[in-house]
Design brief:
Helix 2 (about 30-55) runs antiparallel to helix 3. By secondary structure, the protein is mainly α. Helices cover about 85% and strands about 0% of the residues. The protein has one domain.
C-alpha cells in the first residue's frame, strides 16, 4: 500500500474511532462509571490516533483526558434530563385509575 493510500485509509478510521468514543462515554449509571468509561475509550482512541504519528503513549494520555471530560459532560447532561423529567412529573402528575 502506498503512503498516500495509507493516509487516506487512516483518515477514514479516525472519525469512526471518535464516534465510538462518544457512544461508550455514555455507558454507566454513575458519574464515576461514565467518566471512567469515557477515559478508557478516549485512551484507546488516543493511542490509535497517536500511533499514526509514532507516539501512541502520548495519544493515549491526551485521549484519556478528553474521554474523561466527555464522559463527565455526558453524565451531567443525563442528570439534567432526569431532573427535568422529575420536575415535569411533579408539575403534571399522571392520573392513576
Amino acid at each position: 500500500m502506498s503512503l498516500h493510500n495509507y493516509i487516506i485509509e487512516s483518515e477514514k478510521r479516525v472519525p469512526v474511532l471518535l464516534d465510538a468514543d462518544v457512544v461508550v462515554a455514555g455507558c454507566g449509571n454513575t458519574t464515576a462509571s461514565r467518566t471512567g468509561s469515557g477515559a478508557v475509550a478516549g485512551a484507546a482512541t488516543g493511542a490509535a490516533i497517536g500511533s499514526f504519528s509514532g507516539d501512541a503513549g502520548k495519544g493515549a494520555l491526551i485521549g484519556a483526558g478528553v474521554g474523561a471530560l466527555g464522559g463527565l459532560a455526558v453524565d451531567q447532561h443525563q442528570k439534567e434530563q432526569e431532573r427535568q423529567r422529575e420536575e415535569e412529573l411533579r408539575r403534571y402528575p399522571r392520573d392513576s385509575y
